[in-house]
Amino acid sequence: MQLGPYTLPNALFVAPMAGVTDRPFRKLCKRLGAGYAVSEMVTSRPDLQDSLKTSRRADHRGEPAPIAVQIAGTDAQMMADAARYNIDRGAQIIDINMGCPAKKVCNKWAGSALMQDEALALAIVEAVVAACAPQGVPVTLKMRTGWCASVQNAPTIALAAEAAGVQMLTVHGRTREQGYSGRAEHDTVAQIKSRVRIPVVANGDIDSPEKAAAVLRQTGADALMIGRAAQGRPWIFREIAHHLTTGGHLPPPDLGEVKGWLLEHLAEHHELYGEFTGVRSARKHLGWYARSLPVPAAEAEAFRRRVNALTTADAQVHCVGEALDAWAAGLALDGRPLPAPEEEPLWRLAA
Q1: Choosing from 29, 100, 106, 132, which is the catalytic residue?
Q2: Residues with Cβ < 8 Å from 309, sequence gap 6 or more?
Q3: CA 293 – CA 84 distance, rounded (Å)
Q4: Whole-structure pTM value
Q5: Mind listing the pLDDT tens digit for each residue in 178-232?
Q6: Number of H helices and number of E strands within the chain?
Q7: What is the sign, positive or negative, of the torsion defined by CA atoms of 121, 50, 26, 348?
Q8: Helix (H, G, I), strand (E, B) or coil at 220
Q9: pLDDT tens readout for residues 239-273
Q10: Is the separation of the CB atoms in 200 and 169 below 8 Å?
Q11: Which of 153, 220, 233, 298 registers the highest number of CB atoms within 10 A of its CB?
Q12: How far is CA 152 from CA 116, 187, 190, 205, in A?
C-alpha cells in the first residue's frame, strides 16, 4: 500500500490509543506484523508541547519509518503549527484526530466533537494540509461515522477532506455517542470507499483473522486498523496477515516466545517512562497479556494482583519471567498443577 512517498509493508495498522500506543508498543506491533502505526494523540496547544507527557508521546527513537503522529485541537492555525512542530521532530505523516470520543477531549470541541462543526473541521484540514505540503508530508484523517445516530456525516466530511488534500481516511464504525458500546458498523466505510479515490481504512471491532477478512469483503477497504484487540495480544497482526494471505491459521505462539516479547516490551517501557512511572503504567499492559494467555481467568487475576503490588522495575521483570516460566511448565503461580482453561482462550480461537 502506498501512502505519499511511503510504501507500507502491509495493510494492517495499529490504532492510536491514548496511554497505549506509545513507542515501545508500536515497535512491538510492527515487529509482530503491523505494517503501520500511528502515535498517541498529541495536543496542538503550544503551552503543553514541552510537557513530559507530550515529550514522551513524541519520542520515536528506534522506531521503523514511517513515523506517523496524530495531532488534536480546535484551532486551525494552532493545528498547522503543531503539524510543523512535529515534523521538525521527526514526524513523516500527520494524522488529524476527529475520532476520539473521550469527554475531556470532546468537551473542548476536539476529537470527534469536530464532526458537529463541518466548517471548522474543514478549516483545520485545509490549514494542516497547507502546513505539511511544502515539506512533502502526507496528511491523513481519522474520524467516526458522526456525532450521533441522527448526524452521521462522515461521508460528507470524507469528500471535503479528500478535496482539501487529505491522502488517507480512517473510519471507526461508531458514532461519538456510542463510545465503544454496541457493535461497529462498516456500511458507512463501504459507502465512503465507493465515493472517494484515496485509501480508506476500516476500524472497529476487528478482533480476529476471520473478522478482518469479513470486514475487507464487506467494505472494500484498502486497509484495516486494529486497536483494543491488540492490547495484550500484539501478535494478532501476524495472525491476520497470515490468514489474509493463505486462508489458513498460524499456530498460537508458545509461552517462551510470549515471554521474550513481553520482557522486551517491559524493558523499553521502563526505559521510556523511568522506573516510578514505568512500573505503574506497565501494569495495564501486563494485565491485558495475562488475560490473553492460555491460563484460567483466576490465574490471570492472581497474576494481575501480584504485579499491581510491585513498585520496582526489577521486581516486575522477575515476576513476569517467573509467571511465564511456571505457566509454560504447566504450573500455577502457587506451584500447583495448572488446571485446563474452562474455555478456549481468544488467542487460540483466533490463531
Answers
A1: 100
A2: none
A3: 42
A4: 0.90
A5: 888 889 999 999 999 999 999 999 999 999 999 999 999 999 999 999 999 999 9
A6: 13, 10
A7: negative
A8: coil
A9: 999 999 999 999 989 999 999 999 999 999 999 99
A10: yes
A11: 233
A12: 10, 12, 14, 19
The residue type found at 142 is K
Q: Under DSSP, is residue 282 helix (H, G, I), strand (E, B) or coil? A: helix
- Work out whether strand 2-3 and strand 6-7 pair parallel, antiparallel, or are unpaired: antiparallel
The answer to whether the beta carbons of residues 46 and 259 sit under 8 Å apart is: no
Distance CA 299, CA 332 (A): 7
Asked if residue 66 has a cis previous peptide bond (ω within 30° of 0), the answer is: yes
Q: List Cβ neighbours of 10 (8 Å cut-off, separation of 6 or more).
A: 1, 33, 34, 35, 241
Q: Which three cell numbers stand for residue 94?
A: 500527520
Residue by residue, DSSP assigns 291-342 as HHSSS-HHHHHHHHHHHHT--SHHHHHHHHHHHHHHHHTTB-TTSSBPPPPS
- 100 as an active site residue: the answer is yes
| Angle ∠(84,87,89) on CA atoms, nearest 5 | 115
* Dihedral pair phi/psi, residue 147, rounded to 5°: -80, -40
